[in-house]
Amino acid sequence: MLTIENVEVTYHHVVQALRGLSLEVPDGRIVTLLGTNGAGKTTTLKAASNLLGLENGAVGEGRILYRGRDIRGVAPDRLVQEGLFHVREGRRIFAEMTVEDNLVAASYALDRRDARADYDRVWDFFPVLKERRRQVAGYLSGGEQQMLAFGRAMIARPRLILMDEPSLGLAPKVVEEIFATIRRLNAEDGVTLLVVEQNAGLAFSVADYGYIMEHGQIVMEGPTETLRDDPDIRSFYLGVAEAGGGAGKDTGETRQSFRDVKHYKRRKRWLS
Length: 272
Ligand SMILES: Nc1ncnc2c1ncn2[C@@H]1O[C@H](COP(=O)(O)OP(=O)(O)OP(=O)(O)O)[C@@H](O)[C@H]1O
Ligand SMILES: [Mg+2]
Hints:
This protein is of the alpha/beta class and 272 residues long. It folds into 2 domains: 2-94 and 157-223, P-loop containing nucleotide triphosphate hydrolases (Rossmann fold); 230-272, no CATH class. Helix content is 37%, strand content 25%. The protein is built from 11 helices and 13 strands. It has helices spanning 41-48, 76-81, 99-109, 116-125, 127-131, 142-155, 172-189, 200-206, 224-229, 231-236, 258-267, and strands at 2-11, 15-25, 30-35, 57-59, 63-66, 69-70, 84-87, 160-164, 192-197, 209-214, 217-223, 240-241, 254-255. It has a 6-stranded mixed sheet, with helices on both faces. Helix 3 runs parallel beside helix 6. It is globular, with a radius of gyration of 19 Å. The structure holds adenosine-5'-triphosphate and magnesium ion. Adenosine-5'-triphosphate (ATP) binds next to strand 2 and helix 1.
């Protein structure tokens, strides 16, 4: 569905954000991309949806293929029409418009005249949005706004959704709902997803495969079952310290202190 090959990205001709990044998102799968702040996760998504131009960023070397076709030079709105939808960080919705009009605006932008069935599908996924459909979107809770951002993506009948930190700043219960939606959209509609997350435990609960990036490159990848058991991932991303003396997997696990994590960071075992 999406292939990123050795991509280099620079902002303002000087700031190099991606350094030969490669990743693959197979059709029908959920793939997660993890990494520390500033690693280049958002840049990767923007490169794939051709939004870098808005920020004076550009892809230099490398290729990005969406459904086998090089997307270089294809306008972002064209990509949306072709089924590639980027749900950006920070819930971009029209705050002064009603919930319903946010969906209507999404369908107009796609030139989709009869979108009633699409709205019904959004209401079915998110009943709370249906209840609030005549309310101004700016007054929705953070979680509801994230649902609405998701709903706007659904209107586009996407094949591939790029999601940037859907859990950011949301309460655990709401996050669970958003992730249940990700699973459902994948299972029922066969939508492929590339999900950027800070919460690795959550990401691993939905994804088939994961990539870890640092400084604009992929430093580790694998099926999520493998990543979940990796000691480095466990200590750094899952915040779990291994129990001493080879004790059972789930006994004696404690939250790791920030100091330990920093120590871990210096070691950077996966780079050596
Ligand atoms: N518009 C921009 N102009 C200049 N530099 C930028 C711009 N956007 C991002 N960068 C730089 O590119 C690098 C990667 O940023 P990016 O936003 O992709 O990271 P991220 O992994 O999404 O981080 P976070 O977890 O904080 O969201 C950072 O060093 C950042 O400062
Ligand atoms: Mg980001």
